[in-house]
Amino acid sequence: MINITPTITLDESELDWQAIRASGPGGQHVNKTSTAIQLIFDIRQSSLPEDYKTALLAKADHRITASGKIIIKSQQSRSQEMNREAALTQFIELVKSAGFKAKKRHATKPTYGSQQRRLEGKKQRSATKSLRQQKNKFD
Question: pTM (2 decimals)?
């Protein structure tokens, strides 16, 4: 079982793991071993609560496909096991972020002092600009 939050757990069978070849430098080791890990998770077929599913599907994240699958590729380490742990950590953080609800913002009014400071600044700016104006010679 994978613990997402204290109340939400997922069965490990819901995650699909694939070992793939890593890209980038590394010489012959990269060409002959499959150390990179790809984690695939189907949001729609999962046992997650419905609010988590809708939040994940609505997220604008490059790791979530249009078909509703989370695909996380990890290739930071030369060890397959360390890449598996890194991918799982990223997955858990992504699912946790779907459960976060932003606090509702309450509109406030500017204080009397801030209004007075704003008006005073406008008066000073106006005075500066009026001094820059060329006066008509024939007045």
Answer: 0.61
